[in-house]
Amino acid sequence: MKNIFTSITMLAFSLAAFAQTLQIQPNDPQYQNLKVQGLLSSSVPSNLPHRISGATQNALSQRDSSTGICSACMVELDSTFSVVPFDFGATAPEYRNDDGSARVGLPFNFCFYGTSYDTLFINNNGNLSFSGSYSSFTSFAFPNATFNMLAAFWADVDTRGQLSGLVYYKITPTAMIVKWENVGYFPNQDDLLSTFQIIITDGTDPLVPNGNVSFCYGDMQWTTGSASSGVGGFGGTPATVGANQGDGIRYFQVGRFDTTGTAFDGPYDAADGVDALDSLFFTANVCDTINIPPMAFDFVCDTLDLPTLGGFFSSIALELELTALAPEIGQTVTIEAQGFPGFSILENTPGNTVNFKYAINTAEMPSGVNTLSLMITDNGPGGKSTVINKTFVKSGSTVGINNINDNDIQIFPNPANNQLNISNNFKGIVSIIALDGKNVGQFEVNGNNNNINLSDISTGVYTVKLSSNGTSVYKRLIKQ
Ligand SMILES: [Ca+2]
Ligand SMILES: [Ca+2]
Ligand SMILES: [Ca+2]
Which stretches of the chain score pLDDT less than 50? Predict the structure, then answer.
């Protein structure tokens, strides 16, 4: 009995040694057998030769700027995308595979921790890499001294299941978009499917306004394949989200995920719930070599058009949330906010992760465009900051409240030069509010001589707030 056990152990040992020493590739006939038996090292590089291939370049279709909630980041799959042509025996046109990679050339330079790359690897297991391809299916925490990788969701993606979607990409003169669209997990599992996307740019493409990378998530349904000790798509070794230079020093981590649900205690500490990523997006500048500026998880788009939330926009108290990350271990983040009438902070405690909670009372919010500006600063080397501007639009030029009939109150001329007249049926306080929410002028009128002097106010678009007896009406004003 002992002899049999010993010989099985020795066989397993020799297979594992074989896998490691020969760096067995995913297209090897023995690869799947070894992986199912748990005999593959998860850190085997797949070693695609590093050369530039002639990638198809498609013109970037215009992004729809009139989007509603959180579609600004997720680029819809359309005919301008191609299926990623994975190597290692995957076959056209679908290139379904387990741990494959594809070498792709870029028409622009992508800056990753100070090095510019015009070739990279799309690895099926949820990541892009630069110094070589990776078939590694079990992820590691960042920082890590080996992997040179940008990981939207480094986990054991497997698109061989019939119901699994595929991995697509699109290259423009200044950006590459890679989409893992409804993909399954190892081995061949397609009962749970996840959708996520990476965009990398030359640093100037407006697709990524605050950096050169964005990660964007649709519905995330699983975390772990069975070769990483997952059961039913969860548990085992957590999936990793972040970036890692591979020197053990330069990195960021957003989180590690091994379970269902939305629990998220920040990038480190406990493993997190994968549903926390649902519909999330964030951007990063990974060109910075010393200290990555803070990053933000946001649950609403850059622009939120309040009437799309329903017909009650004049009386909604919206409670919103943004999560800011250092994102390196040990750094502390603080947030300074500049809002507008109706904006208030509910929670803002400095930390490695900050849950910034705020409210918008839409009855007090001026009509038109209101801007919330958040300056997020870390205490790492150089004290890096990220500024997030969000606009909240209250549609309609006026909002009638209580006994003030705003249609009867006029402001003229509009556009105005140095003098603005307000119809004599109004008696009360006139506030001039800039697009950033700042009150730039306040006047009291008595209903007799309702002229106000705008000569101290610069040219631009303003909201005029007319308040009387605790109620207000709003008008849009152009100062020229
Ligand atoms: Ca895989
Ligand atoms: Ca965590
Ligand atoms: Ca930082």
Answer: 1-22, 43-71, 307-314, 396-405
Is residue 111 domain-shared with residue 200, that is, in the same domain? yes
User: Distance, CA 246 to ligand 2 centroid (Å)?
Assistant: 21
Q: Which ligand is nearest to the CA of 98?
A: 1
- Report pLDDT for 274: 95
| Closest ligand to the CA of 255 | 2
Cα 42 to middle of ligand 1, angstroms? 11
| Cα 405 to averaged position of ligand 1 atoms, centre (Å) | 64
Ligand nearest to the CA of 167: 1
Give me ligand 2 centre to Cα 267, in Å: 4
Residues 53 and 37 in one domain: no
Taking Cα atoms as reference points, which of 171, 121, 186, 170 lies closest to residue 150? 121
Q: What are the residues whose beta carbons fall under 8 Å from the beta carbon of 426, sequence distance 6 or more?
A: 409, 445, 447, 450, 466, 468
pLDDT of res. 14? 38
- Centroid of ligand 2 to alpha carbon of 340 (angstroms): 33
Tens of pLDDT along 47-82? 443 322 222 111 111 223 333 333 457 888 999 999
| Rounded (10°) CA dihedral 446, 451, 455, 461 | 90
Residue 284, pLDDT score: 83
The pLDDT of residue 364 is 84
User: 379 with 460, same domain?
Assistant: no
Q: Range of 458's domain?
A: 406-479
Give the domain CATH number at 334. Answer: 2.60.40.10
Q: Are residues 92 and 235 in the same domain?
A: yes
In this structure, are 228 and 170 located in the same domain?
yes
Ligand that comes closest to the CA of residue 141:
2
| Nearest ligand to residue 290 Cα | 3
Sheet with 272-273, edge to edge strand ranges:
101-112, 115-123, 127-129, 149-154, 239-244, 251-259, 272-273
In sequence order, the 6+-apart residues with CB closer than 8 A to the CB of 58 are 80, 170, 171, 172
| Ligand 3 center–CA 298 separation, angstroms | 18
Which ligand minimizes its atom distance to the CA of 184? 1
Q: Are 294 and 379 in contact (CB under 8 A)?
A: no
- pLDDT, residue 448, reads 82
Distance 296 CA to ligand 3 centre (A): 12
Ligand 3 mean position to 69 CA, how many Å?
Answer: 28
Q: Are 286 and 112 in contact (CB under 8 A)?
A: yes
106 located within any domain: yes
pTM score, whole prediction:
0.69
* Eight-state DSSP code of residue 238: P
